[in-house]
Amino acid sequence: MTGTPAEAVRWQQQYDIPAQNIYDYQTFGRMIDNPATDIVYVLLPNALHAEYVVQAAQAGKHVICEKPLATSVADARRMVAACQKAGKQFSIGYRLHFNHN
Prior knowledge:
Layout: H1 5-15, E1 39-42, H2 49-58, E2 62-66, H3 73-86, E3 90-93
Parallel strand pairs: 1-2, 2-3
Helix pairs in contact: 2-3
C-alpha cells in the first residue's frame, strides 16, 4: 500500500507484485477479499496506525505495526482488542525482536 502511485508501479515491477496485491488509501478495504494477503505491515503516519490495524484485523489478516504503536492508550487497546477478536497475531515492527547477534 502506498499513497504514491509511482512507487506502486516501481515496486510492482521490481518485486513482481500482481496488480491485485497493490493498494492505496482508497482501496485498502479490498484486502478482505484477497486470500493472497496473509499479513499487513502498517507503516503509516502514527495517527493512522489504529485505523489501519483495526481494518486489517477485521479483514482477517495478521498485523505488524511500526512503532510507536498508537498515539493514545485508547487506540492501542482498540488495536489489540481488534486483533484478539479476529484471532490474528499482532506484533510491533521492531527489528531487534529477531536480531540474534
